[in-house]
């Protein structure tokens, strides 16, 4: 996975359709939730209204605080994460899609595996570019790290669900196939997490060995362009090596 200085420098000048799309997604999602919020307030459903406001705050925070965040995330990843939060928390919990649609939970876990796999690729790239950390991995090990990163976070989430159900009496581990313990739900969640992580890891490995540029490579270029401070040492080292060869 290689990225040149010139490509990173050109990225901000290109028309960023993804940024505009992300902005419209934020507006549409917040508008949709605002209508439901008014209905909840009118009906006196104060707990649901409070939960809706909290979810709206989570969705709006990265956009409102983007100038203060230490790391600038590409709008494509922001949009995907926003839609995931909307589908998991608002549609899933508030609108009870988890109960109304049998496969809703599994689809979201596949999506989380994909997202976490992409974040795993970005994390390895940042560590590989940081000269304070000696890390030089081949494509297959980068893909393996992304896969293990996604599965590990998914496992931690299942532990969180178990803790919430045990301590606070919630129902995050839902009965499935007649199993009231929630164990079957946990195993299916982990399985689909692995499928999503495996899909994005294989895709990333395939394109790291292929001259064609994938969406992962484009997102990494945008990530570098928006976070030049993370890659200053890497660029100085490449410039020094190029000067020595010259």
Can you give a write-up of this model?
With 246 residues, this protein is mostly helical. It is 74% helix and 0% strand. α6 (104-129) crosses α7 (139-168). It is globular and about 55 Å long.
Structural features:
mainly alpha; 246 residues
- Rg from C-alpha positions? 21 Å
- In helices, the fraction of residues equals over 70%
Poorly predicted ranges: 1-15
Approximately what portion of the residues adopt beta-strand conformation? under 5%
Number of helices: 10
Average predicted local confidence, pLDDT: 78
Please give the alpha-carbon distance between the first and last residues: 24 Å
Along the chain, the helix and strand elements come as: HHHHHHHHHH
Largest sheet: none
Structure summary:
This protein is an all-alpha fold.
Question: How do the helices and strands line up, and which of them pair or pack?
Answer:
Layout: H1 5-10, H2 17-42, H3 46-64, H4 75-94, H5 97-100, H6 104-129, H7 139-168, H8 183-208, H9 215-226, H10 232-245
Helix pairs in contact: 2-3, 2-4, 3-4, 4-6, 6-7, 6-8, 7-8
């Amino acid at each position: 996975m290689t990225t040149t200085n010139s490509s990173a420098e050109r990225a901000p000048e290109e028309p960023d359709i993804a940024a505009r799309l992300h902005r419209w997604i934020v507006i549409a999602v917040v508008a949709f939730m605002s209508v439901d919020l008014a209905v909840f307030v009118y009906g006196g459903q104060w707990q649901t209204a409070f939960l809706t406001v909290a979810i709206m705050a989570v969705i709006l925070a990265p956009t409102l605080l983007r100038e203060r965040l230490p790391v600038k995330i590409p709008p494509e990843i922001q949009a995907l994460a926003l839609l995931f939060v909307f589908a998991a928390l608002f549609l899933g919990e508030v609108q009870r899609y988890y109960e109304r649609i049998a496969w809703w939970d599994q689809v979201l876990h596949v999506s989380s595996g994909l997202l976490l796999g992409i974040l795993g690729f970005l994390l390895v790239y940042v560590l590989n570019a940081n000269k304070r950390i000696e890390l030089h991995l081949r494509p297959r090990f980068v893909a393996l790290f992304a896969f293990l990163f996604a599965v590990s976070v998914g496992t931690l989430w299942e532990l969180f669900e178990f803790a919430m159900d045990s301590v606070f009496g919630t129902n995050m581990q839902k009965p499935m196939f007649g199993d009231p313990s929630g164990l079957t739900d946990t195993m299916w969640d982990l399985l689909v997490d692995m499928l999503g992580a495996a899909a994005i890891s294989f895709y990333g490995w395939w394109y790291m060995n292929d001259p064609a540029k994938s969406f992962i490579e484009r997102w990494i270029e945008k990530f570098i362009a928006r976070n030049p401070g993370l890659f200053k040492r890497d660029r100085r080292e490449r410039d020094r090596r190029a000067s020595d060869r010259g």
